[in-house]
């Protein structure tokens, strides 16, 4: 790993790698380090990501997601408060603000009307209240097929340096509501049920009512979907990398599905519809 100190701090990576390995998971071992120059010598987890394997043959999906959810449960069972930074209200809110600031204002060149801004604020408050009511565990924060490697033991886990201590459903939402590959709702629901049952039997704080857990996961995913749209827009306009924003329609679909499923989120569904209507009137593609 070559991470120039003026741009990256290797210490969180080293810390979380050790936490993962202590939990019995396949994270890179740090063989040597030079923090002054930003160099780490790591063990190699191979060349095939879950994403590539799934895109080539999704017949392996059940096996891969079984391994991924088993690893996730082991990671969550290792959780201890005070070890990783908290995924608190301030951080969750900063992430949500990426949606109006970067996706709406910068990417779509849309200014919300005062009533729309007020409604979005109310939606953000509801989403955050739901997120923060969840029990806290270790959160990888990008636990998705592109950061999981096909390896032995499976999976190899990468890109964990931003790990935090936060909502128990976050990493499962990241895994199954991905930026680059989507699943039929019935299939994803089966994986969620299987995770919940194993997690509950392992003693994780996922609750005894699956319906409540599924709602928590959907509202947690909603926070992530809004954030990711903002991040993809920022990558496009600040960093000059246009490829990511091409997957925005997938996230709009995720948001619309959740917002139309829960009555309290109806104003968010109407906002998405209004944005689409305004884009169409301007002769621009949405999103």
Brief characterization of the structure:
This protein is mainly α. The chain is 55% helix and 7% strand. The protein has a two-stranded antiparallel ribbon with strand order 1-2. The chain has a two-stranded antiparallel sheet with strand order 3-6.
- CATH fold field value of the largest domain: Aminoglycoside 3'-phosphotransferase, Chain: A, domain 2
The tally of structural domains comes to: 2
Distance between the termini: 35 Å
Rg computed from alpha carbons, rounded to a whole number of angstroms: 19 Å
Low-confidence stretches: none
Q: Reading side by side through the largest sheet, how are the strands ordered? A: 1-2
Secondary structure: helix percent: 40-55%
Q: How many helices? A: 10
CATH architectural name of the largest domain? Alpha-Beta Complex
Range of strand content? 5-15%
* Rounded average pLDDT: 94
Q: How many strands?
A: 6
Structural overview:
The chain is mainly alpha-helical. It has two domains: 1-44, 2-Layer Sandwich (Phosphorylase Kinase, domain 1); 46-281, Alpha-Beta Complex (Aminoglycoside 3'-phosphotransferase, Chain: A, domain 2). It is 55% helix and 7% strand. It contains ten helices and six strands; from the N terminus they run H-E-E-H-H-H-H-E-E-E-E-H-H-H-H-H. It has helices at residues 11-22, 50-56, 61-77, 89-107, 114-132, 170-176, 185-202, 210-237, 248-261, 266-281; strands at residues 30-34, 39-42, 136-139, 148-149, 156-157, 164-167. Strands 1-2 form a two-stranded antiparallel sheet. Strand 1 (30-34) and strand 2 form a beta hairpin. Helix 9 (248-261) crosses helix 10. The chain is globular. The mean pLDDT is 94.
